[in-house]
Amino acid sequence: MVLAAAVMLALSGCKGGDLVSYDLPAKSARYTFETQTNDVKTVWQYTSAKPAKGDAPELSPCMGDVAGSNTAACRPEPLIFLRYDFGLALDNTVRAGETHEVTVVGYYQESLAALPKVTSLKAETTFDGGRTWHPATTRATAKNTFTTTIENPRREQAAKGVGLRISATDSQGNTVRQTIPTVYTLR
């Protein structure tokens, strides 16, 4: 089962206990999982393997264990999640015409198996609401942590604000692509 789906839905604010898990075939296969919340679109591609009893950590039990309705083995899927430090002013703005650094951390759900390492991260920016994308310089700064440098244009050149698209890959070939249409506006 895909425990990641249930956790993602819980984190994205599903109402009324709408937690969902998915049954996947027992053999190893490549999957795509997509979600969109408040215009932020995330697409994961990952390889799932057959779960074994005890793969789910005690603090993240299988949905069937919680509800008491299913005794099948499950495990968290190897989805790369992204956490950001945008370094914004209190009004969610950044100075126009200057460079701005954003820190991006890749992380995973708790798992009993060894977690992969995020090996690459690519960033792109948009100043026109997503019609065109521009590469942003990115460098690794710590384990699973990257710093992206955005070259902000003049304010009138980014009237819709600055958007960000992040693509990351880990040591097992799993990927995530997250598009945030507007991260901040310029002042």
Features:
single chain, Immunoglobulin-like, 7% helix, 187 residues, mainly beta, 2 domains, 2 helices, disordered N terminus, 10-stranded mixed β-sheet
Description:
The protein is mainly beta. The chain folds into two domains: 3-67, no CATH class; 81-186, Immunoglobulin-like (Sandwich). It has two helices and ten strands. Strands 1, 2, 3, 4, 5, 6, 7, 8, 9 and 10 form a ten-stranded mixed sheet that branches. The longest helix has 9 residues, at 3-11. The radius of gyration is 19 Å and the shape is elongated. The protein starts with a helix and ends with a strand.
Itemize the secondary structure elements and their pairings:
Blueprint: H1 3-11, E1 29-37, E2 40-48, H2 63-67, E3 81-85, E4 93-94, E5 99-107, E6 118-126, E7 134-142, E8 145-151, E9 162-170, E10 175-186
